[in-house]
Amino acid sequence: MSTHRRTTAFAACAMALAATATTTAVAAAPDPATRLPGRHVDWHACALDADDELGRTLDAAGADCADITVPLDYTDPGGRTITVAISRLKATDTAHRVGPLLLNDGGPAGPGLHMPLAKAEAMGEVAARYDLIGMDPRFVGRSTPLDCGWDIGSAPLRSAGADRTAYREEVALARDLAAKCEHAHGDVLPYVTTRNTARDMDVIRAALGEDRISYLGYSYGSYLGEVYTQLFPGRTDRMVLDGVLPPERYGSTLLRGTEAANEAALRAWASWTAARHGTYGLGATRAEVLATVNHILAATAEEPLRIGKTYLLDEHVVPALFVGGLGSDLDARRADLAATVRVLARAADRKPVEPSEALAGQLEFLLTGAGSAPAGQMTAILCGDTAERRGVGSYWRAVEESRERFPLAGPLAANINPCEFWDRPVEPPTVLDNDVPALLLAGTGDPRTLSSGALTLREQWPSSRLLTVDGARQHGLYGEYGNACVDEQVNTYLSTGRLPTHDPVCEA
Hints:
It is a single chain. The chain is α/β, with parallel strands linked by helices and 508 residues long. It has a domain at 22-145 and 188-252 and 434-507: 3-Layer(aba) Sandwich (Rossmann fold). The chain has helices at 22-27, 53-60, 115-123, 164-185, 194-207, 220-231, 259-274, 277-280, 286-302, 318-324, 331-348, 357-367, 372-386, 392-403, 410-413, 451-460, 484-496; strands at residues 64-71, 81-89, 99-104, 130-136, 213-218, 236-242, 305-307, 311-313, 439-443, 465-470, 505-507. The strands form two sheets. It has a nine-stranded mixed beta sheet with strand order 1-2-4-3-5-6-9-10-11, with helices on both faces. A two-stranded antiparallel sheet has the order 7-8. Strand 3 (99-104), helix 3 (115-123) and strand 4 (130-136) form a beta-alpha-beta unit. It is globular, with a radius of gyration of 22 Å. The chain starts with 21 loop residues before the first helix and ends with a strand.
């Protein structure tokens, strides 16, 4: 998904085929090819029907698609199977072909079939050297589906609200959502995990007939790549992780630890918006814009905001609209948020407002069953990786502790979620004890995956290099930020396979 749609979150667990201890996994990562009837992939056209816009676009670009059969449970490779959908844009420079480059757009639960087309543009002539492979992870997109049957799409990212009464509503909702998903898919939920997605990646590698794969992963996709290197050492070639999330930062509360970065991004956006007061009318100074934001939040706590004839926005959802708009400091993304806030401000004054087409789409996703499948998929991965019983009171205490310093992001990042009521993961979290020569990318002001996380992984992987974009409040850099320095550095590495001799720095 593109920068303004990408969200974050993250972790994992150990079975017989990947071993119950990290050191065992490193010593003997089994080859999934032994579980396949052959290394043949049945490539076919991507369009499902005449109305399939994504499929028709892939077909027009010369891409192929396939469905790879994988075990549901890797401890029972001969048992129930599911399919994982992939796409491929073949290398055209066969004389200099490097091999497959597997792409992941983050999420968790971000679909990826579109990515070969998106990244081919960023890669330029380098793309011709790779078979670009998009993947819809297990239970996402065109892979075997999962839908919890929820009537909202905001489940993974909701705010606790202003008081205990509001928080109790969140506790009841989280418990109900967990029960609904268990009822709908209890037989597969234990296997909706990052570690199993990494195993699926290795089945894809084997099916393609390759000894090694290159990898480009954004946000959560960086974590998925890290897990893959741990479970299957020596099977990666060139690796780029953009928006780095190390295992120790991955958890079921998506934004925990990013509160300060998001509040800083809010202030920066307020300054940008104040300079355009004539366009948006939200305040002529940063303080005035922030006062408008506070007015919206206070009004929402008193009574939900009515947007058009259809949508009611309460105090649990409105903060997510703000934070969701703070993932980029590009003018276009800041303008999108300002336009949304302008509508919210009028609604907070109890004036009639109509949403733009884009905002209506967002609200439809957040407030209705239209967002059920993606929300359930994201939640299932997070809970399958990291569910833990903390006690409902612990979340409220964390909310109250963070509220004064981080009034917008604190109650959102610390809020309870369905993972509190999920079955415990069947595997322990992945721990890295390896060293991978990867290129890591980080913006110093990234409000989703903190630059400190990239520094942590850089220390863990001495053979890696860290490319920092100084001053960027941006989540998703390569091919998304329009920064020539970043794109040139990544393309040089993908072309030559040689990492920079030092940790380079680009300016925002």
